[in-house]
Amino acid sequence: MTATPAPARVRLKPEERRTQLINIGLRLLTTRPIHEMSIDEVAAEAGISRGLLFRYFPTKRDYYVAVVEAAGRRLLRHAKAPEQGAPAERVRGIVDGFVSFVQRRKGNYVALVRAGAGGDDLVLEVFEANRRTLTDRVLDAAGVPDPTPLHRLAVRGWLAMTEEMAIGATDDVVTTADLVDLLVGNLEQVMERFASGDR
Amino acid sequence: MTATPAPARVRLKPEERRTQLINIGLRLLTTRPIHEMSIDEVAAEAGISRGLLFRYFPTKRDYYVAVVEAAGRRLLRHAKAPEQGAPAERVRGIVDGFVSFVQRRKGNYVALVRAGAGGDDLVLEVFEANRRTLTDRVLDAAGVPDPTPLHRLAVRGWLAMTEEMAIGATDDVVTTADLVDLLVGNLEQVMERFASGDR
């Protein structure tokens, strides 16, 4: 192995440096699970010392949690309903954003979910908060003004299905557009079935 | 802390000892995630030395994988369709077994799923194999003789929903019997929607 020349050290403002370090983490996540990501590698990519990195993130865990939070914010920026429109169209906006987000970065997403499920309580809290936000958005888009715990449970289940199918779907099985249609239609049925007394 | 007296050492046949050690693991899983389970604690519970335990399971990982496999076998023993009956009744057998299994040991089940997702490839393989077996059983029970990849994707998604709802449901939100009804009905709709051209 020949040593690659270290990137030129660039002086960045603290906020820019923080953002740079998190972006490196998000990029490395596409190639390996978060647990296998090394702090030394992140510092080297940024062209800074390990010591300087730890001034931004006092522990490895702080760094990982920041990366997972950033990934969650990205997902939530994509999985948004349009302000106006019929419920089905507003739900479609969320599903399309969610499914497309997962499909564009499958390895990354699975690595994140695996990291989240790996047992770190802080990471699990980030996941839980994102899941709650998504649930609220879906209920609002679907036009459920006063959701019951059963509505919430139904949407949580349907989000798990959406995530599983977005990860598992490949183009030769179903196109993203068709998958989105299928999931939007399924939510309508889930909400009818789970929310009414008609079972 | 006062030392509790060690249990009397009992001589067991190798297969019995193996089963005993795995059963201890399954029981400890109800109180903590698998990663926090200590080999010393397992050996102490069995009244044997750490060294003897390692003769049955050469590494901590071997032991964990064996515990996860045993938990998977238990789940599959419960989540079974009756041999005879209409598709909806056969599917109900699987769902009822799955949901009841998860609900009786929620902490344990979540700990296992978290362990599985935690990134150990062998544990992930065990999960994947179980998920495939469940998918096959559901397709067979639902009367889909020649499943397409889209059928499989649909059932995988629905299983993720079933798992999420079984974990999330509490008695004040929905009874187990009602949840099973809801999920059985939902599978019918999912299969119709996902398997036909009618979207």
Automatic annotation (TrEMBL), chains A, B:
Keywords: DNA-binding, Transcription, Transcription regulation. It comes from Kitasatospora xanthocidica. The keyword Magnesium does not apply. This is TetR/AcrR family transcriptional regulator. It comes from the Bacteria. Residues 38-57 bind DNA. One of its GO terms (molecular function) is DNA-binding transcription factor activity. Residues 15-75 form the HTH tetR-type domain.
